[in-house]
Amino acid sequence: MTDFTEQRVRRSISDFVRGARGEPSRLWLAAGALAVVIFAARSCATVEAGQVAVRINNLTGATEVITQPGLIMRLPFGIHGVYIMDVTPQTFHLRGQDNKTVLEVRELEVRAADGSSFAFNDTTLLFRAIPVHADETLRDSGTGHAYYEWMLPYARSILRDEFGRESTISVSNPTSFAQAEGRAKQRLNKLLGEHGIEVTSIVTPRPRFSKEYEDLIESRNQTENQLAVIDSELQRAKTERDRKLAEVERDQNKIVQTKRAELENALATAVTAQVQTHREVDTYKIEKVAAGQAARSASKGKADELKGQLAAEYASRQAEIDAFRNQPVERVMQRLGERLKGVTIEIQPYRNDGSPSRIQLETVGGAK
């Protein structure tokens, strides 16, 4: 019963007492109003935000889960039973050396797969009652916050089991650590879900080891940091090497392109000169061939002309010879004498022949 309803009941009782001194009609009116108020108060229940109501019909055994905040109705005289349940997120802690409350118990200690042990200073689980399964939570746990009791046995055993699968080295790895948390959350929700409870988040701090092991972890972390620095230096050196290689390649490409341009220019010049030379040679050849053909034609014409002249001269000489051959001996001797004028001829016969058949001429001195 809410404060507002109680105030209304008290006000009705006060009015009834005052009305008893008045007229009987007012007394009965007040009594009726009081009965209505009491009936209404016993027939209503209020569901706040973050709460759900489970309404049970005690006659049929039917249950109804009401998740919407507001005023709900219930039949009086034990026909309906209404149970309000808190479904807001709750926090369950495993920390310290002793169990303090149902939501704060001693810290989680785990034995790793390699035989070593480690602990967590404060392991936190966020959980809540599932609103739509509030009837199951009520049935298995009871009213109020009785469902908190399920967290301790399940959380400790499952977390110890899942983290115990890891070694001390792997549990220090955030990736393996997150995988163990995921496995634990999945198993918890599978078991607690049967009771209408779910774990929404598991928050675990860095595991705590013995001092010797903590020192080893610190040494390993320092070594890993040094390796990270070395790797960073290697990456920087690789980047610098790539940059210098890129610069050298760029400069070499520039030189190659310059040389290529120069060679292509020289090649173009040589090709142009070759073409020009071929053109000049062809022109010279054409000119020389034309000149040679012209000279040949002229020489041939000249030769033909000389040939004609020689043929004419030969014919003329032949005619003279023929004419000379047909002349009498006296004429021949006269002509011969004209030619041999001033020439001394020594005739030495080979035999005493009055009519020699051959005469040998010899030139003496400068006579012709």
Write a brief caption for the model:
The chain has helices at residues 3-19, 24-42, 134-141, 151-164, 174-192, 211-325, 329-339, and strands at 44-47, 51-57, 63-66, 70-73, 80-86, 90-95, 104-105, 108-111, 117-120, 122-129, 197-203. The chain is of the alpha+beta class and 368 residues long.
Task: Provide tags for this entry.
7 helices; Tetrahydropterin Synthase, Chain A; three-stranded antiparallel sheet; four-stranded mixed sheet; 11 strands; disordered N terminus
Weakly predicted, low-confidence segments: 1-6
Q: Main sheet: which strands, in order across?
A: 7-6-10-11
CATH architecture of the domain at 90-209: 2-Layer Sandwich
Structural class by SSE content: alpha+beta
List SSEs in N-to-C order. Answer: HHEEEEEEEEEEHHHEHH
**Could you give the count of β-strands?**
11
Structure annotation, total helices: 7
Radius of gyration: 71 Å
Name given to the CATH homologous superfamily of the domain at 90-209: Band 7 domain
Mean pLDDT over the residues: 78
Let me know the largest β-sheet: 4 strands, mixed
